[in-house]
Specification:
Blueprint: E1 18-20, E2 32-38, E3 41-46, E4 56-57, E5 74-77, E6 82-85, E7 89-93, E8 103-107, E9 114-116, E10 153-156, E11 162-163, E12 169-170, E13 177-182, H1 188-199, E14 212-214, H2 222-234, E15 241-244, H3 273-282, E16 286-291, H4 304-311, H5 328-345, E17 349-352, H6 367-378, H7 383-386, E18 392-393, E19 406-407, H8 415-428, E20 436-437, H9 450-461, E21 466-468, H10 485-500, H11 502-514, E22 520-522, E23 540-542, E24 546-548, E25 562-568, E26 572-575, E27 582-584, E28 587-593, E29 600-603, E30 606-611, E31 625-631, E32 636-642, H12 648-651, E33 671-678, E34 683-686, E35 696-704, E36 712-713, E37 721-725, E38 728-737, E39 744-747, H13 759-769, H14 774-785, H15 791-799, H16 806-817, H17 835-849
Parallel strand pairs: 14-15, 14-21, 15-16, 16-17, 17-18, 19-20, 31-35
Antiparallel strand pairs: 1-2, 2-3, 3-13, 4-11, 5-6, 6-7, 7-8, 8-9, 10-13, 11-12, 22-23, 23-24, 24-29, 25-28, 26-27, 26-29, 30-31, 32-33, 33-34, 34-39, 35-38, 36-39, 37-38
Helix pairs in contact: 2-3, 4-5, 9-10, 13-14, 13-16, 14-15
């Protein structure tokens, strides 16, 4: 294996892409340099000393792209002016020190927005933040590289840390300006693709990371921790990762000062660390230990003498060995003596919990960047047990997506904290950061609430990483069975669902790398020209066709439902959890759900593969049984992707020559199973499985929200079982050979459609469970079912009813207006209580993000 200082980069730009002045020295030296990286991405530099930066930075490690070559551009150069023009932007420069008057970039097109140099980053759609530590609700976000109000975004890279040619840390010369203008004019996905092009791809995550993680700040003993893991198993809840927080290390000699740094096992709690870790591995769990490295290595540490020997450090006075990430010798001892010894005991990867600021002995060197970068590269030595390089740490700035997984910090347990988290997660994709791990359920303070915890877990299941966590408090712990029975059953069902989703999640994991499409995306990524997409910050895409609208406020005491205002893009959608609800899109809707579910909408033409193995186990091996959830109505295609049959760490010698760790396994090497639905012919094709082993697998197909069809099997030799349960039709195929060279095909019926919503049945369900006056239910019911007046008049009557809670009116309106095909539908004439207030809120957001 190569050393930890080797990584893939290409920081030198193609000379043909560079525009600069004189190459002389002294008074004749050029002070400016521009690099046309693509026809929409420009690098700008100004240097008081005539030197320019060609080393990789933390944000940008690639500036030359052999796959696309040099973009086409024209220059017009005079004594005192320079103009650079591509098809998408025009730079104007007066050849003086950069200023708002002298340097500008005009985005070509109808809007013609002009960026004028100001030395700042700009991306009005937001990015992410270093931490949510202490957050009660919303926190300020750093800019991403996407904008709505302007046709450009700017990444100022002038202060970022550097990597030298040998892979060691470096700093910039003072006074130099270095930045990037993204002239994408609302083409958000193109901007992110080119950001990944210069900053590097997100790496592939191991399959097991996508399942449930258990974490708690608590003084566990080995026996207590193992007993807890066994309790999860007995409750039928699978886990993949066991996190051991700070109390694994022993206290200081002064037991009243626990300290924040330690590397010696507390033998009173873990008398046999190797045995403890071995037992966790027997349970198919990966293990990560918390590390706060800032306080260095104290004399009472078990490895003090070994580290001191590696550093030639004098131990005669028992002095603490200072943490110094700017000292390469210390860093080598930290990884190769301290960390490696503990890893050999059975620790799989590290949770780097750095909270000590961004200062080091070398100004401009951020310790979090150093820790993230070198921990990730060092983790290559453990790929035989963790499958892929991995670390677990905090966000350090643009470029941090190369070091997944992110730990977002210690949120307070409040509804405000929950409400901000989906927006925080989605906007992180605006800076390419796709793998946040939140403290699901919140970390500290706040109140105990079954409802809040359930809603947070539901969000967590539809988050990048699902990790339960809580602080050290006897009242605050997230064991599902510690909550009331109904809450426990809901939490358990969702944690099981998370593991059912892993075939889909792993495919999205590969898509994120090879197609530059993070798992979670704000709605405006796919609908950049729809103003409404910018007004629903808590709603997001989960993969290409699933819309998640988490419920982040308490349930109504009248309707007993949680509610959320959502915007549905054009098309038709079905709720995955409630297939009797089908919605026409291109409008706002108020969605309401009981505590058992949140709105999860799938567009017509969606294929969702689920692991339906009869028994889910820790570790998430490849499923023996898969159910294809199919939403008919439009053509659909999904390619199920699974790991190469040959271990990824054996596939290529990824350490030779700094091979890109994100894409060292080509897409062609993965096991891939295409699944295609032909809407017109009603044919579902599965396979053939490419690069498979020839094993057998149980296949099922569920037609979500479709119950009226006859099924003909075109699978020779297999008995097809058809069943209708609730609002779905399921076809069980039995075991099918996975390596059939032609795949297999089912004929399900031509041009199948989703079932039409039964308005009266659904409205009755909503009203029946409402806790309100019986007398007040009658006029609501009459408005929905009465046929004498026009629907629009009856809608007005419903909205004007006195003594009826707004949540009840809106919940009834939802089912009445959901499906435009239904008899008596209110679709197109729907209205919502407090609509004027809602319109004002929308107008305020539109004024922020919509071009006037």
């Amino acid at each position: 294996m190569a050393d930890r200082y080797t990584f893939h980069s290409r920081p030198l730009a193609d000379p043909k892409a560079i525009v600069t002045g004189s190459s002389g020295k002294g008074s004749s030296a050029s002070h400016y340099r521009f690099t046309v990286l693509t026809d929409r991405l420009l690098r700008y530099e100004w240097s008081p000393d005539g030197g320019f930066e060609d080393r990789a930075s933390t944000s940008v490690i690639f500036r030359r792209f052999p796959d696309v070559g040099v973009a086409n551009f024209l220059t017009h150069d005079t004594v005192d002016s320079l103009r650079i023009t591509t098809d998408y932007f025009q730079l104007s420069y007066d050849k003086k020190k950069f200023s708002a008057d002298g340097l500008s970039v005009k985005v070509l097109g109808d809007r013609g927005d002009v960026w004028r140099y100001d030395g700042k980053s700009y991306g009005d759609l937001g990015g992410t933040a270093r931490t949510l530590d202490g957050a009660y609700g919303r926190v300020d976000l750093e800019p991403g590289v996407l904008s709505r109000k302007k046709g450009y975004a700017v990444l100022d890279d002038s202060e970022s840390m550097l990597w030298d040619k040998k892979g060691w840390i470096a700093v910039r010369e003072k006074g130099r300006v270095d930045g990037y203008v993204f002239a994408y004019d609302g083409d958000h996905k193109a901007a992110i693709r080119d950001f990944y092009r210069i900053s590097g791809k997100q790496p592939v995550l191991p399959r097991w990371t996508l399942g449930n993680w258990w974490s708690r700040y608590h003084e566990y003993s080995a026996g207590e921790y193992l007993e807890l893991m066994d309790r999860f198993k007995s409750e039928g809840i699978p886990l993949n990762v066991g996190v051991v927080d700070m109390d694994w290390w022993k206290l200081t000699l002064d037991r009243h000062k626990a300290g924040w740094t330690g590397y010696s096992w507390r033998r009173d709690l873990f008398p046999d660390p190797e045995g403890f870790l071995k037992e966790l591995h027997k349970r198919n769990l990966r293990v990560t230990l918390n590390d706060h490295p800032a306080d260095g290595i104290a004399s009472y540490e078990d490895l003090y003498e070994a580290v001191a020997k590696a550093l030639d450090f004098d131990t005669s006075n028992g002095a603490r060995i200072e943490f110094d990430c700017t000292d390469k010798k210390f860093l080598d001892a930290y990884f190769d003596v301290l960390k490696l010894t503990i890893e050999k005991q059975g620790v799989d990867f590290w949770w780097i919990d750095w909270q000590q600021g961004n200062k080091t002995k070398i100004p401009g060197v951020d310790p979090l960047w150093v820790l993230n970068h070198y921990h990730y590269l060092t983790s290559r030595r453990n790929v035989k047990t963790i499958d892929r390089p991995l670390t677990f740490s905090r966000y350090a700035g643009a470029g941090s997506h190369r070091y997944p997984i992110g730990f977002s910090g210690d949120t307070q347990i409040t509804w405000e904290g929950l409400e901000f988290q989906p927006e925080f997660t989605a906007t992180a994709s605006n800076i390419g950061y796709g793998w946040w791990s939140h403290d699901i359920g919140g970390h500290w303070a706040g109140v105990r609430s079954n409802q809040l915890t359930v809603r947070w877990v539901q969000l967590g299941v539809f988050s990048p990483i699902m990790r339960l966590h809580s602080t050290k408090n006897i009242w605050n712990s997230k064991e599902p069975w510690n909550f009331e029975k109904d809450a426990f059953e809901i939490i358990r069902a969702f944690l099981i669902l998370r593991h059912r989703l892993i075939p889909f999640l792993y495919t999205m994991n590969i898509r994120a790398v090879h197609e530059s499409e993070p798992l979670i995306q704000p709605l405006y990524w796919n609908h950049p020209k729809d103003d409404e997409a910018y007004t629903v910050p808590t709603q997001y895409y989960f993969g290409p066709n699933l819309l998640v609208a988490p419920i982040t406020s308490p349930d109504s005491t009248a309707s007993l439902l949680g509610g959320v205002r959502a915007w549905l893009p054009k098309g038709r959608y079905i709720d995955v959890f409630h297939p009797h609800l089908v919605y026409d899109g291109d409008r706002y809707m108020h969605l309401h759900r009981e505590l058992t579910h949140i709105p999860l909408l799938a567009k017509e033409g969606t294929i969702l593969p689920l692991d339906t193995s009869p028994k889910l186990v820790n570790g998430s091996p490849r499923p023996t049984e898969i159910t294809i959830v199919l939403v008919v109505g439009k053509d659909a295609h999904f390619e199920l992707v699974e790991e190469p049959e040959k271990s990824t760490h054996e596939h290529t010698n990824e350490d030779e020559g700094g091979v890109d760790l994100a894409t060292n396994v080509p897409l062609s090497a993965y096991v891939r199973t295409p699944i295609t639905w032909n809407q017109a012919e009603g044919k579902l094709s599965i396979g053939p499985e490419w690069n498979g082993t020839g094993k057998w697998r149980q296949w099922n197909v569920t037609l979500l929200g479709h119950t009226n069809t006859d099924i003909q099997s075109l699978v020779p030799g297999f008995r097809v079982v058809r069943s209708i349960e609730g609002e779905d039709t399921t076809i069980s195929l039995g075991n099918v050979h996975r390596w059939d060279p032609t795949g297999f095909e089912l004929t399900l019926g031509a041009d199948l459609q989703l079932d039409v919503v039964d308005i009266q049945a659904r409205a009755f369900e909503v009203l029946h469970r409402c806790e309100m006056s019986y007398d007040d239910k009658d006029p609501i019911w009459d408005a929905v079912v009465e046929s004498g007046d026009k629907v629009a008049d009856r809608v007005t009557r419903l909205l004007n009813l006195k003594n009826v809670d707004a949540a009840v009116k809106n919940a009834v309106m939802e089912v009445w207006a959901a499906d435009g095909r239904a008899e008596g539908t209110a679709a197109g004439v729907e209205g919502w209580v407090d609509a004027k207030r809602e319109e004002r809120e929308v107008e305020e957001v539109l004024r922020e993000y919509v071009i006037v």
